[in-house]
Structures are given as C-alpha cells and as structure tokens.
Amino acid sequence: MGGRTPAPITERKTRLDGTVAEYPCEGLIVEAGRRAVVRYVTERDRHLEGTDLMLRAGTLTIGHFWTDRPYNVYHWIEGGRTIAFYVNIAADTTIDTGAIAYTDLVVDVLLRPSGAIEVLDEEELPPDLDPRHRLAIAKALETCITEARRLIAEIERETRAALA
Fold it and tell me: Which of 7, 111, 125, 145 is the most buried (most CB within 10 A)?
C-alpha cells in the first residue's frame, strides 16, 4: 500500500428508526471532513437480500464515503474481480480520523459490471419520511441511473489508487 499503514476506523450507520450498527474497518484514505476510503474483508458468506448476489467469505469491500454526496459506495471484489458496486443512499455523513458516521436512508442501488442497475428497498421507506431525505434519495437515484458508468469508472479508479 505504498508505505501507508491502514489505521482502524469505525463505520457507524444510523438507521431511520434510530438503531445503530458499527463496522470495524481499515482506513486507506481518510481526509477528515471530506472523504474516506476504507477496507473490510467479509468474514462469512452473506446473501444480499432482494438479489441473487452472494458475498462469500473473503470478499473484499472497499467503501467510499463523501461528506458532500447523498450516498456512499461499496466496491465488492472477489479474487481480484469486481462482483458489484453497492450504493447506499445516505444523509448527514461525517468523517474524522476515527469514524465515518451517516444516516442510512433505506434505499440502495446495486450496479453490476454488466451494466444492470437494481434499485432495492424502496418499498421500505416510511410514509412520513422527512422531505430533505426524499430529496437526497431522488438526487442519489438520478446519479446512479443517469451517470452509472461515470460513477463506476470513478470508483474503480479510486479503489486502485487506495490499494496501490
């Protein structure tokens, strides 16, 4: 990794119901207040609900986070090959040297290397969702659907740079 030593960092996801999930990661690039790229290796097989995708134990996840975008992106790699890009629509992302925190806005987008795009979990949105969250979801979906190729190219480039 080019002489850099990955530092531990926690990914903290707050769901709309207020529950919190934390994931220990390795910080590859952390620019406090701006962006972060983290690494996580899947410990056990995990089926991605609502899809035919299985993340096998040992799958590498490179997470990309920004404070100025309404989403974060997980780049899933198995055996050196991209499996998929998972866009987690989010709000209120904060980044510091020890933690990345955000509010998970339920809706996710799966971008496949084939170009297929799957929008997931829209039916789970609460009817009383804050209008600013609805706007963030709409903006993120527009980016994922109309600019999928550009987003994928950016994530692939940033993943290569973080792992170099």
Answer: 111
